[in-house]
Give the backbone structure.
Amino acid sequence: MTKATIFPICLAISALSLNARAQDVRGYSYGSVTEVDYIHVDYGHFEEYMAWVTSTWLPTMEAAKKAGLIIGYKVFQASPKSPDQPNVYLEITFKNMAAYAGDIGDQADAFEAVTEKVICNSACQNQARVHRNEIRKVLGTEVTREIVFK
């Protein structure tokens, strides 16, 4: 009699366990990761800033893409509602969170090597940042992660 009672109980618990595991399966996975820099370029300096983007930022992104550090990049111009909002967005897309964050030291070293090869050394880049910061303000950076539905 006891065996007859225990078997159905075990069977019911097993069925509940399978149902719980089936509900745990997500209907999505994570895809690419995009870093978005929010920039406000001062009035009258847009062409000057775009000259920097095309002469320096763009070749750096191409070199990073060729090195396999990123999978893409984009630049957007916006018409902000107020002067304290961004009017330029710089986007850099990575294959996934591991490619974005990975071992931060290794990722930073790889990007530094690319920028030194394409632009110049760190001291030279810092001097250029001082001038760029006279015509633009970095309002912030946001990281988004794509959700891919199955």
Summary: The chain is about 50% helix and 25% strand. The chain has a mean pLDDT of 81.
